Amino acid sequence: MSAVRLKAATPAVPPATEYARAGRAAKFILSKTKLRPKIALVLGSGLGSFADEFTDAVRIPYQKIPNFPRSTAVGHAGRLVIGKVDGIAVAAMQGRVHLYEGYSAREVAFALRVFGRLGIRSAILTNAAGGINLDFTQGALVVIRDHINLQGANPLVGPNDERFGPRFPDMTQAYWSSYREIALAEARKLGIAAHQGVYAALLGPSYETPAEIRYLRTIGADLVGMSTAPEVIAARHMGIRVLGISCVTNMASGILDGPLDHAEVLATGERVKGQFIALLRAVLPRIAAEKN
Ligand code: HPA
Fold first, then answer.
1. Assuming Cys at both sites, which of 25, 68, 107, 269 could form a disulfide with 114, CB separation 3.0 to 4.6 Å?
2. What's the chain's average pLDDT?
3. Angstrom distance (rounded) from CA 247 to CA 255
4. Where is 237: in which H helix or E strand?
């Protein structure tokens, strides 16, 4: 009987760090375009078509980008578009991924890590949200002043990579004040009645109960949605400055009579898309001109 020979143990290859994985994705993106984007845009539900207006654009489906998660939500195209808006090089996500799709907070924030590795220092994040503040109406645009993260998750949980940022990053200016002022001023110039408000981020995917909305109002939330907070946390960890703008696609649960439905959210997004895009176009050159 021949002796059983044990295979020599192959040395374990340590998994690539998030820093390295984001670096690989960034390198791939840079190989597809000569542009060097300065500002990142995350285009939420229904807003993705802004990226169809870019010039010199390259469109890269998320599944082609190494390590990039794929979006499954209706109304989210799932492409990264690098192009120019009035001469400014930008990188836009047509659609994002959410925690409710089953992704971890780290995965949800991964695109921001890639933007950081691309050398981007400013990001504009947009989303659809339910209006809690009774001064808001369906279709209103709201500049996010701050957020309350109630998602029970944070993309920085786990070992910290100092190359991205510190273990305990400051969040006092989660939404950069001069960017907020720019957005409000440009909205005024365009005749858009823009508000400011605090965004409560919930896990979803079920909409809130009326009791949850009453609770959120009590704790100081003006808006409610299921995105944005993890991306903003990762952005601030890297020192990226953030502008957040919500479109109030519906008044939150229990505020008006009748149920909430996703078709209504998409329809309102569609209705105010023109205004939203005009505002983004007006804001971009002013953010590009700010010293970082
Ligand atoms: N709740 C949570 N997320 C949302 C809503 C809402 O009412 N509208 C759009 N996104």
1. 25
2. 92
3. 17
4. helix 229-237
CATH code of 18-287, in short, is 3.40.50.1580
What tens digit of pLDDT does each residue of 21-65 get?
999 999 999 999 999 999 999 998 778 889 999 999 999 999 999
Model confidence pLDDT, tens digit, residues 150-170: 999 999 999 999 999 999 999
d(CA 171, CA 15): 30
Q: Is 128 a catalytic residue?
A: yes
Between the CA of 290 and the centroid of ligand 1 the distance, in Å, is 32
Sign of the CA dihedral with 114 first, then 118, 122, and 124 last: negative
Q: What is the SS3 assignment for 172-186?
A: CCCCCHHHHHHHHHH
Using alpha carbons only, how large is the chain's radius of gyration in Å?
A: 20
Distance 250 CA to ligand 1 centre (A): 7
State the DSSP code for 194: E
Question: Tokens representing 35?
Answer: 């542009």
Ligand 1 neighbour 23 (Cβ under 6 A): no
First and final CA of the chain: distance in angstroms?
73
Query: Residues near 63 by Cβ (< 8 Å), separated by ≥ 6?
Result: 70, 78
183 is catalytic: no
Q: Is the CB of 249 under 6 A from ligand 1?
A: yes
Q: Where are the domains of the chain?
A: 18-287
Amino acid letter for position 250: N
Q: What is the pTM of this model?
A: 0.93
CA of 210 to the centre of ligand 1 (A): 12
Q: Contacts by 56-64 with C-beta closer than 8 Å and gap 24+?
A: 56/83, 56/84, 57/81, 57/82, 57/83, 57/84, 58/32, 58/33, 58/82, 58/83, 60/29, 60/32, 64/28
Among 76, 147, 195, 237, the active-site one is 76
